[in-house]
Amino acid sequence: MSVLEGSVGVGDMILLEPLNEESLINNLEKRFQHKEIYTYIGNVVISVNPYQQLPIFGPEFIDKYKEYNFYELKPHIYALANEAYQSLRDHDRDQCIIITGESGSGKTEASKLVMSYVAAVCEKEEQVNSVKDQLLQSNPVLEAFGNAKTTRNNNSSRFGKYMDIEFDFKGSPLGGVITNYLLEKSRVVQHIKGERNFHIFYQLLAGADAQLLKALRLEQDGSCYSYLNREASRVDGMDDAANFRVVQNAMNIIGFSTEEVQQIFEVVAMVLKLGNVELRDDFQASGVAGSSIRDEKVVKEISDLMKLQPEVLERALCSRTMETKKEKVVTTLNKIQACYARDALAKNIYSRLFSWIVNRINENIQVSDSTKKKVMGVLDIYGFEILENNSFEQFVINYCNEKLQQVFIEMTLKEEQEEYMKEGIPWDKIEYFDNSIICKLIEHNQQGILAMLDEECLRPGMVNDSTFLAKLNQMFSKHQYYESRVTQNAQRQHDPSLGLSCFRIQHYAGKVMYNVDGFLDKNNDLLFRDLSQALWKSKHHLLQMLFPEGNPKQVSLKRPPTAGTQFKNSIATLMKNLYSKNPNYIRCIKPNEHQQRSLFSTELVGTQARYLGLIENIRVRRAGYAYRQVYSAFLERYRMLGRSTWPHWRGQAREGVEKLLEELNLGSGELAFGRTKIFIRSPKTLFYLEEKRRIRIHQLAVLIQKMYRGWRCRTNYQLMRKSQILISAWFRGNMQKKRYRKIKTSTLLIQAFVRGWKARKEYRKYFRSGAALHLSNFIYRRMVQKFLLGLRNNLPTKVTDHRWPPPPYKVFTLVNQELKTIFYHWKSKQFLDQLSPQKKEALKEKLCASELFKGKKASYPQSVPVPFRGDYVMLREKPKLQHLQTASDGPVLMVETVNKINRASGKMAPRILLLTKSHVILADPKGSKIKTVIGLERVAEVSVSSLQNGLFGLHFTEISSVGSKGDFLLVSEHVIELLTKLYRATLDKTKRQLPISVTEEFTVKFKEGNMQVKVIQSPKSQDKNKVSCKKKGRNHLEVYAQ
Ligand SMILES: Nc1ncnc2c1ncn2[C@@H]1O[C@H](COP(=O)(O)OP(=O)(O)O)[C@@H](O)[C@H]1O
Ligand SMILES: [Mg+2]
């Protein structure tokens, strides 16, 4: 996706309309919120620190950016690195990549991205790989010794770095040179709360094994060391121990020997332990204040590490030798001075160690042969800083940035001018702010601030920071970009914010107030010669190397150059270096102070945009023509806007563009035709073109869609038509085949019938008519015969045998039934005929009993097989009872002993009951005295229980009750026989059917009144006829029986 297309906001801010700070920041914010952290200003990349890992890095992105030109994809550091690398490889132009920005804005990360890009794109050969490894591995080592946690950045580089990567003619890396600037060495002895000392101290303590720690005489606990603020601070997400191993490994890859690594750690340990050397006031005999070591043990350990006599070190720390040409004077240092000397020593050892490491890395990665090399420089240097209290360090840092701005302006303008010249377009002078006047204010050899500072440092007599300020005030009283209280007073201005001991410089990026306190000291950066001489005497090889000036043979009384001068010189070298190369800029911006993702502080970004001079940058780039593009690319992009250039332009690209722009009728001042490029003055025109292109593309897309859809429908239709024809052909064929098959089968059927009919007709004469009837008759007869014979052989022998053979054929079912009925009638008649009249009478009785009691009374089934005896008392054999017989008229039908239930008490009394043809007689069983004689006509009804028992009630007619005692409740052992006989006798006598009701509840009428009888079933017992009664009140009687 190109910079112009589909981007959030404006991808290239040269095209920002309107151009002002607000729109610029809005554009950055909008892009930042959409995770578009990179934005261009021409070929400058603005990078806003995302504070989160974005999925836009890594090999596949590198591969993509490798394939495209700068503006063809979204803005990215890879695009810039690619452009620089290709220009280096293909056009043989040395490159430098200048990365600037505040601390924590992402400079170091950006430089690593550039390096990883370059490492990834260049050829992959064995030897090259080791060079690349060494180059890449220099990072962790430098970061361990030169980075620290600050409040703004957990991994803040506390030194400036410039790295030249050298390539051969093919573009393969050969090696490199690293230059370091101004390590913040004050951090070794002091850092504010919440920050840390350099990482290496913590890494060493956390990562070294016990053996190494012992050799270095170190405790693992960081809180033992006063240079670490006596706190074991850890940084979230940073594993010091693991990083220590990474550093050791990196040192190994770069080519440090084991002894060297050991010695480096020894020096680090010395520095750390120096912080624990405590000093105290010690007055000498002469009364002059002196100092001495409080704890000899620490000094002893350090001297052991330094391979030095403890006394030598002690003397060096506590005294100072003043040496002139003629004499040597030894003075003692008081406690404050001695502490100062100790800290100065620690700082010096550490910063010299750092420089030594850089040099050592350089020795390994440097290219030895002197053939011409292509160079790409990467500069990662601290950005412009405005702190609350700005001192010497900020002064030189800001000076450095001022110089870089100068490079930027000059190079950009130069480039612009060169381009115009190359393209043959007249160059109008561009108005811009030239900051060389500020650079001069600082760096002028005689009248610059740095020169004054040096002069003040060297001048004999009373010199201090305020004399320096006075000198500045005097020198620059009229300078436009310099202010202080004094110059203001002179101009009758009053600004309370400007401190007394301060001066203010109006840098290109804003006004900064510097406090002169400590300027002289920091510029002097003196290490007492006693210390360097003492350390040179050390037998520790590395330590001795760090202090060459301690060698008495090299003693010169000439002062070493001041820090300011050193820095100025190194910046001058750097500038020379940069000017000789093609610059590429990455300007880093920090979106917030809290290292937080997605948080964009407009105010903070505004300040940085001003520091970095982004608006200036855009103005310079836009001063002439905002947009330029080579003819062919321009034509390719916009040719659809012209009638003659669309769809094909056969001629030269330039002519095509001219024709196209003529047709579009743009203002003539807007355009300039260069040799290879078209120049467009204002972004508005470009946007106009873009908008037209967008609309046109839309139209073209619709056209293409239309054509495509038409084509698709047509081909689809044709395909369908073809298929339809094929399908219908098959279908018709199939249908005809089916029809043919049907006709064929029908024909065959008809033929078969006709043939059959013909054959039958032919053969009919040969058949005897009526044969079938004969046959069937014969068969039927045979069947009947078989049925009847089968029946004869299986007939039942007894009338009670109901097994009847089933018919052999279904047709005989009805006949069989009929035959069975006839057979049983005949068999029954035969059976009846051979019975005697008595037997017949007995059976009639049994039949009557069955009609009366079958299915009604429980004792009936048991009575069936038992023959009715009639006489149960042996009437004939008992003469006593004979007269009873005489009392009755006619034969006795039945006689037995029954129990009568007493109506009053419910008790039972035995009675002999006689039944004759006309009477029921009850007699006393002992005396055989007749108690009651009842004519059968008086018996109205009988009630009997349905259970096993023999209870029954004899109910008499109303009239007959006069004079009698009422109904009888009797219990008989042969109640079925008795009642059957009573029923038959009554029927014979009175031609009346005696009602016999089978029930468990009935009423008996007595003289005294009615009584309700209820039969209740008692549990089963041995004696089935046992009956017991219980009176319930006057009118109720409960009978318990089975
Ligand atoms: N491109 C990036 N992607 C993700 N995080 C980043 C990126 N650039 C910077 N950071 C984060 O910001 C922190 C500070 O970056 P750094 O390069 O050390 O800043 P500087 O060198 O400018 O002080 C890094 O430790 C990292 O967490
Ligand atoms: Mg950094």
Automatic annotation (TrEMBL):
CDD domains: IQCD (cd23767), MYSc_Myo1 (cd01378). ATP binds at residues 101-108. One of its GO terms (molecular function) is microfilament motor activity. SUPFAM superfamilies: P-loop containing nucleoside triphosphate hydrolases. It comes from the Eukaryota. Residues 8-694 form the Myosin motor domain. InterPro entries: IQ_motif_EF-hand-BS, Kinesin_motor_dom_sf, Myosin_head_motor_dom-like, Myosin_TH1, MYSc_Myo1, P-loop_NTPase. Residues 857-1041 form the TH1 domain. Residues 571-593 are annotated as: Actin-binding. Pfam families: IQ, Myosin_head, Myosin_TH1. GO terms for biological process: actin filament organization; actin filament-based movement; endocytosis; microvillus assembly; sensory perception of sound; vesicle localization. Keywords: Actin-binding, ATP-binding, Calmodulin-binding, Motor protein, Myosin, Nucleotide-binding, Repeat. Belongs to the TRAFAC class myosin-kinesin ATPase superfamily. Myosin family. This is Unconventional myosin-Ia. It comes from Sarcophilus harrisii (Tasmanian devil). The lineage of its organism: Eukaryota, Metazoa, Chordata, Craniata, Vertebrata.
